[in-house]
């Protein structure tokens, strides 16, 4: 007798359920331990973003604090030099020096606050390293549950559910393992762009100027163009021309075509019917800027452009996807029998598996030559291991867990897999 199924098919053996546990704990076999170690290794390969985001945030804070110190110290030294060179009276010199001392005291307070912030971020990096180091075969299930929570928080933050993400992280005690503060920083810029304000986004570009320049980002240029367009929309032409000379002209060497197109709006105005210029005044341009910022933000911190939840779901669905999943008789136990999953898996390739596998409905273990499938008189198939254990507990009687059909163990027929 030959049997073969495909993942997601309608064979009784291809579905899964919860298995009962024995009274005494089972000792993991060497093969099971090796499989878990393999899972552990593969899991760690996916944690690049988990470590890089807090590290990049830490580096950014250090750079920002360094710039503040350089600026303030330079100003104080310059002030001392000016006071020395100028012919000031005693009272004037004392007043000037007191002003400089007050400035240094302000710098000290800033450094104390900055130091606390740096320590907090260093602690977060340490917590994530400790979390990865705590991963082993014994606690793999708990560790994976924590990772699932991290993935859900990441999805909530990317979808702008900030309050829900914060409460979920607090209730799960994983605040140091998620990037809420980083996304709250981005929220200020996103909210401003939705309100058609570019100032916070431009300030963000200034703070990250060197990084954006290395990646050859044109986000700042797009912001400047939009600000120019808004001046033209308000028919403030002289101000728009002055703005273009100061902020757009420096981009001419690299973005001349786009610059010429936008400058032409001075003649076509916001009520033009010419499609090539009319689109520049479309309100959707602000939505484009929001999307552009999200992409630049993710690149800056080494994040994936897609939410981690989407990536994991698509990877899993791609492994399950077969032509049989889209047929009318697809079993309900197959995730791809649901329309929402079918839609998500639509652009994904089919699974590359050349051979089907039979998985026992009861034990979730693979049925092969070492654990062959047995067929009940009602046509349902389960593993030898599961049915032997059931027969021992019930005086040789077998009860199908899905149909409640009962028979003797001797009535079972062995199936052969080709």
Description:
It contains 17 helices and nine strands. It has 418 residues and is mostly helical. It starts with a strand and ends with a strand. Among the domains are: 44 residues, no CATH class; 118 residues, no CATH class; 59 residues, Herpes Virus-1 (2-Layer Sandwich).
Q: What secondary-structure arrangement, pairings included, does this model have?
A:
Elements: E1 2-3, H1 30-45, H2 48-85, H3 90-133, H4 140-158, H5 162-172, H6 180-194, H7 199-207, H8 209-214, H9 219-233, H10 237-248, H11 256-263, H12 265-268, H13 275-278, H14 284-301, H15 308-320, H16 339-345, E2 358-359, E3 366-367, E4 373-375, E5 381-383, H17 384-393, E6 397-399, E7 406-408, E8 413-414, E9 416-417
Helix pairs in contact: 2-3, 4-5, 6-7, 6-14, 9-10, 9-14
For the structure shown, list the relevant keywords:
single chain; 418 residues; mainly alpha; Herpes Virus-1; three-stranded antiparallel beta sheet; elongated; disordered N terminus
Strand order of the biggest β-sheet: 5-4-8
| Oligomer classification | single chain
Q: Tell me about the biggest sheet?
A: 3 strands, antiparallel
SS class: mainly alpha
Level of helix content?
55-70%
Question: Can you tell me the residue ranges where pLDDT is under 50 for at least 5 consecutive residues?
Answer: 1-27
């Amino acid at each position: 007798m030959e049997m073969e199924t495909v993942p997601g098919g309608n064979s009784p053996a291809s579905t899964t359920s919860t298995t009962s546990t024995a009274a005494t704990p089972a000792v993991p076999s060497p093969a099971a331990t090796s499989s878990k170690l393999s899972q552990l290794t593969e899991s760690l390969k996916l944690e690049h973003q988990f470590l890089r985001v807090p590290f990049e945030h830490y580096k950014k804070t250090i750079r920002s604090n360094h710039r503040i110190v350089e600026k303030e110290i330079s100003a104080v030294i310059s002030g001392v030099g000016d006071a020395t060179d100028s012919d000031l009276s005693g009272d004037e010199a004392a007043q000037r020096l007191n002003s400089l001392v007050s400035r240094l005291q302000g710098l000290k307070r800033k450094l104390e606050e900055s130091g606390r912030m740096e320590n907090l971020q260093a602690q977060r990096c340490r917590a994530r390293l400790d979390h990865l180091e705590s991963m082993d075969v014994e606690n793999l299930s708990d560790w994976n549950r924590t990772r699932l929570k991290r993935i859900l928080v990441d999805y909530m933050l990317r979808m702008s559910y900030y309050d829900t993400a914060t409460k979920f992280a607090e209730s799960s005690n994983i605040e140091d393992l998620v990037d809420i503060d980083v996304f709250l920083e981005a929220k200020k810029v996103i909210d401003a762009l939705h309100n058609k304000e570019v100032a916070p986004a431009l300030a963000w570009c200034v703070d990250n100027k060197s990084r954006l320049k290395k990646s050859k980002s044109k986000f700042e240029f797009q912001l400047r163009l939009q600000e120019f367009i808004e001046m033209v929309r308000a028919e403030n032409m002289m101000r728009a021309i002055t703005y273009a000379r100061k902020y757009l002209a420096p981009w001419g060497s690299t973005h001349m075509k786009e610059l010429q197109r936008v400058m032409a709006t001075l003649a076509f105005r916001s009520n033009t019917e010419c499609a090539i210029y009319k689109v520049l005044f479309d309100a959707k341009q602000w939505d484009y800027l929001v999307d552009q910022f999200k992409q630049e933000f993710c690149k800056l911190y080494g994040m994936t452009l897609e939410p981690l939840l989407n990536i994991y779901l698509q990877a899993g669905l791609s492994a399950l996807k077969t032509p049989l999943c889209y047929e009318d008789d697809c079993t309900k136990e197959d995730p791809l029998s649901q329309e929402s999953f079918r839609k998500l898996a639509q652009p994904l390739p089919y699974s590359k598996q050349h051979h089907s596998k039979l998985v026992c409905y009861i034990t979730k273990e693979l049925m092969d030559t070492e654990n062959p499938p047995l067929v009940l008189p009602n046509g349902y198939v389960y593993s030898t291991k599961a049915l032997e254990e059931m027969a021992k507990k019930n005086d040789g009687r077998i009860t199908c867990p899905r149909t409640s059909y009962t028979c003797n163990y001797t009535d079972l027929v062995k199936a052969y897999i080709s």
